[in-house]
Amino acid sequence: MQHFQFAHAIVVAMGNNCPTAEWRSWKGVLEIAKKAVMDELLYTFDDDTNEQLTKLIDDALEGGYNRWRYEV
């Protein structure tokens, strides 16, 4: 999986599940919204589904949420 594909999938999943006006950081995002984002990403990359991918997704979302929020 290329970095661009992964980053694009995160932007799409965030846009589908997390309206930016509601939260200032990934820590503030409701668990149900986090699960929806994670489920969408895991579905997108179902051939790579494992604990390492889940951790990578969670870390990427936590680290990049504010950047994504301001780019949208």
Q: Can you tell me about this structure?
A:
The chain has helices at 3-17, 31-44, 51-71. The protein is mainly α. It has one domain (3-71). Helix 1 packs antiparallel against helix 2. The longest helix has 21 residues, at 51-71.
Question: How would you state the average pLDDT, rounded?
Answer: 72
Q: Strand pairing plus helix content: what structural class? A: mainly alpha
- Domain count: 1
How much of the sequence lies in strands comes to under 5%
Which oligomeric form is depicted?
Answer: single chain
Radius of gyration: 11 Å
Largest sheet: none
- N- to C-terminal separation? 24 Å
Which sequence of SSEs, written as H and E, runs from N to C?
Answer: HHH
For the secondary structure, the number of strands is 0
Low-confidence sequence ranges: none
The total of helices stands at 3
Overall geometry:
globular
Helix content: 55-70%
List the helices and strands and how they pair.
Layout lengths: L2 H15 L13 H14 L6 H21 L1
Helix pairs in contact: 1-2
Summarize this, please?
By secondary structure, this protein is mainly alpha-helical.
